[in-house]
Amino acid sequence: MSDVAELTAYPPVSGPSAISAFERDFTAKRKAARINWALGTAVFVALFIATAWLGDFFKVTQVTLPDGSRDWRWIVPAGIPRLGEYIEKTLPVLRWESLGADLAEWFWRWRIWLRLLVETILIAFMATTLGVIGGFLLSFPASRNLAPNRWVLWICRRYLEIARTVPELVWALIFVFCFSVGPMAGVMAVGLHATGALGKLYSEVNENIDMAPLEGVKAAGGSWFDQIRYGAVPQVLPNIISYTLLRFEINVRSSSIIGYVGAGGLGQEFRTAMSFQEYTDLSALFVIIFVTVVVIDFGSEKLRHRIIGLEGRS
Questions:
Q1: What is the spatial distance between Cα 266 and Cα 302, in angstroms, rounded to a whole number?
Q2: Taken in order 79, 84, 85, 86, is the CA torsion positive or negative?
């Protein structure tokens, strides 16, 4: 039905009757919105309670009381004080009058930790490089608007899903089994997982680009590679750089953990400290990783703003 015919069949009403119709429709929509919100809230609460039940949040366990007796308590309030006890064990004793000696005692393995920290950063750097290369190349055929055909799209997407679905620790165990312990296994594990994660992020950026430049290149006789090179890459480059710097920060944290299974880096020191119950070493390693991540985050933010031109505006 055309607009003229619709206006003829259903002429607009005005006056008090129009106001009454508006209020009636408004009330009906508000009532429907409240019902939908109530149903959504009920479903959310039901899922939350079910998840908490499956996660043993409502479990009752036996605990030892301060007087040595045993009693049944909820596991959450019974476990929180133990978390505080564990954190307290990791805190070193620092006195102002002997601060230098106390810090030296806290970071007593600083030479080894510094060498492993450099190794951790290099693992993250090389893994990020491999992840960027793999993710960048696969992101274009894995994008719905850029894939040459649906089979290439399906194969690239499944490969990226497998790469990022398997946890880095599992990849590290597999590569340690194949290539023995050492940084190489760590680089391959973190790099493969980064390929899957970055490929997914890059492909989502590709699917939001303006297709007009690509159609212009195609109309001028350009191939699929020419369309990607001159039509897509200039549009997605700032986002790719931003995601890459973020991934490097994530890979530094991942590289500091995979050493737990023999894949190099600071992770092996975590395993040693936990095995020998050297609790203050754990806090020292945490401080080292935390400071490293803060420095990398600060540096990558400055670099990202310089590249995308935000530094001059701030």
A1: 27
A2: positive
Higher pLDDT, 79 or 32: 32
Where in the chain is CATH 1.10.3720.10? 109-306
Token readout for 156 is 């690239």
- Give the SS3 label for residue 71: strand
**CATH superfamily to which 109-306 belongs:** MetI-like (1.10.3720.10)
**Pair 186, 116: CB distance under 8 Å:** no
State which amino acid sits at residue 85. E
Q: What is the value of pTM for the model shown?
A: 0.76
* Residue showing tokens 């290539």: 179
Torsion of CA 147, 150, 156, 157, to 10 degrees: 100
Evaluate whether 123 touches 187 at the Cβ level (below 8 Å): yes
Judge whether 185 and 175 are in contact, CB under 8 Å: yes
| Residue range 153-198, pLDDT digits in tens | 999 999 999 999 999 989 999 999 998 888 899 899 999 999 999 9
Q: What whole-number distance in Å separates Cα of residue 232 and Cα of residue 210?
A: 8
Q: According to DSSP H, which parts of 166-232 are helical?
A: 168-179, 183-206, 212-219, 224-227
